[in-house]
Amino acid sequence: MLTLYHAPISPNSRRVWISLLEKGLEFELVEIKLDGEQFKPDFLVISPFHHIPALVDDGLNVVESLAILDYLEAKYPTPAMLPKDAKDLAIARMVQLVTVNELLPATTTFFPQYLGLPGGNPEKIEQAQQKIAIVLKFFENLLDDRPYFASENLTLAKVVAGTVVPLLPIVGISLSEYPKLNAWCDHLVAHPTWQATEPTPEAIEAFKSILMARMAQ
Q1: What are the DSSP calls for 176-193, one per residue?
Q2: Is the whole-model pTM more than 0.90?
Q3: Which DSSP string corresponds to 36-96?
Q4: Taking the CA atoms of the chain, what radius of gyration do you get in angstroms?
Q5: What is the pLDDT of residues 45-71, one digit of tens each?
Q6: Domains of the chain in sequence order
Q7: Residue 151, helix vs strand vs coil
Q8: What's the rounded Cα separation, in Å, for the pair 107 and 113?
Q9: Residue 119 in contact with residue 62, Cβ under 8 Å?
Q10: How many CB atoms lie under 10 A from the CB of residue 23?
Q11: Other C-beta atoms lying within 10 Å of the C-beta of residue 134
């Protein structure tokens, strides 16, 4: 059976969790508490870089969320979660990579505010806001009259971007200037797999405690 090692607060973990649910696969969900469990020897055998998520399937340990998504898509291709058309595939891939390489790093600047913690460098916050605005405009221009990026069906583009974009209003970044993306986000958060994987208040508080302990060191 597939086993997913994850942390419920992690967007990287969540995108794999959602994909497993969307594909209707049987899997075991193992929570790794980020208070030090990620450094334990048993987990380092699976994920030597002590990162989550990690997927174990048929004796293979797969790390890095995008690699895990590619693995699931190749081995469990139904339902298909990547377009076949070259242009549409390029759009889906761009959304994935821009989310991981540009949007998520900028969004992490606002984690203290998201968790109700003090702190935040004003210069870094301004830089992050500018980067996020560029990404949101880019995404807005990629959306057409289809409900998903370059597709009539749910793809990995929405799975990846959809674990980050809904966080933005929580930290004070409005989507009101991006009507297509705003509608896309509203459609997303009503989806059952997003609701099923939403971090609980307990998970948020636990992560908040970990961050506060690190900041006190």
Answers
A1: TT-HHHHHHHHHHHTSHH
A2: yes
A3: TGGGSHHHHHH-TT--S-EEEETTEEEESHHHHHHHHHHHS-SS--S-SSHHHHHHHHHHH
A4: 17
A5: 999 999 999 999 999 999 999 999 999
A6: 2-79 (3.40.30.10), 86-195 (1.20.1050.10)
A7: strand
A8: 11
A9: no
A10: 18
A11: 13
